[in-house]
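agent: user wants the structure for Formate hydrogenase from Leptospira ellisii. delegating to structure tool.
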Amino acid sequence: MNLLVLNGIGAAVMFLILLAYILAPTKGQKQIAMWSVMMIVFTLLTFSAWNLEGFGLQWVLIEATTFTGALLVSSSRTSKSFPIAWKFLLINSFGLGIAFLGIIIVTATLHGIDHPVEVLAGKLSEHPENLWIEIGLWLAIFGYSAKLGLFPNHVWVVDTYGESPSQISALIAAFVPVAVSYALRPFIHMDHQLYPTTFSAADGLLILGIVTMLQSIVALYQRNDLRMMTAKVALFHSGAIGIFLWMDLPDSVFNFVMAGNIVLKSVLFLSMGIVRMDAGKRELSKIFLSDSINKKALSLYTASLFLAFVLPGSPIFVNDLLLLKMGWNQGQWFVIVVPILGLLFFSVLLYKTVPLFNLQDRPFSKEFAATLQIRLTNSLLLFLLVLGLGIWGFYHMLQGEF
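agent: tool returned. relaying tokens verbatim.
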């Protein structure tokens, strides 16, 4: 998969999310036109970040998504939205500030050495100033990991995704990790070239990714809030992205992984929003006390969870197969931890959500029927896009093109 296809998929997802926001807002969503423009600006910034090159330029674009993203998080204007928007802004800016310092150190040191990285890799002993490159790489990679939402700077992820309008959560979760991942890739590649046999910044990112996945499983078991549980799914996948980044995959494979993130996160949050709005509650214990629920919406959300983990033919299923294939080729057997932890996470998720099917089926309430039907249609289109992408990836993998 090339960037043109990735951009096309991203544009289609953005269009469907924006359509849901414009045509099916909730009563609390005001100034739709203004926030719709902000959503477009936010998306264009992320698109630019993964299409343009240059350490400094990518950093500026990603920092701009922090400011626009904070505004979008506050768009619901609830008592919780403003503190969460500040948390989003502060933690992300903190991480990006560290990343910026690392970028300056790496760029300045490489300029002073005046050798391509490929040449420098064979002459490290002749350049004691390479220590500054190593320090810069640690700062850049750790700083960007905060924006990616990895441990220990992951606390903004659940609050942001759990308390924002579902369309905003879908937008941020779908596009921000992709933009950050493309900014991280050059540093990971440089780290592997310069320090292939020692513990380095890329290895630190690997550990943070695994810890994030483990933490999300523990936190999921303790949660009974539908919004927060879906946010934990996004957090788990952010941890997995850290491992995919460490593997330094070929461009075509990496583009496919990123496309999967875009379509999957969007359908997860939009379908979750339908179930929550239909139920009128977000805590599972309160939903269980209801006599009925719309099972079309619940089925779509549950099917999206299957796509997010174990359903054969889904992009995540293909990603796991590709990861195992690359791990086999490189002798990195530990990558099997990703599908194993995914199965564990999914088991906990099913344990909590499947009992909802014991409730009786009913249509949407008349008050929200039109809004929810529009959202359901958009989510179904996204679901089909996810499934189509997974089948496409599985076919090309079987053809040996990945």
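agent: one observation worth passing along. The CA atoms of residues 1 and 255 lie 6 Å apart.
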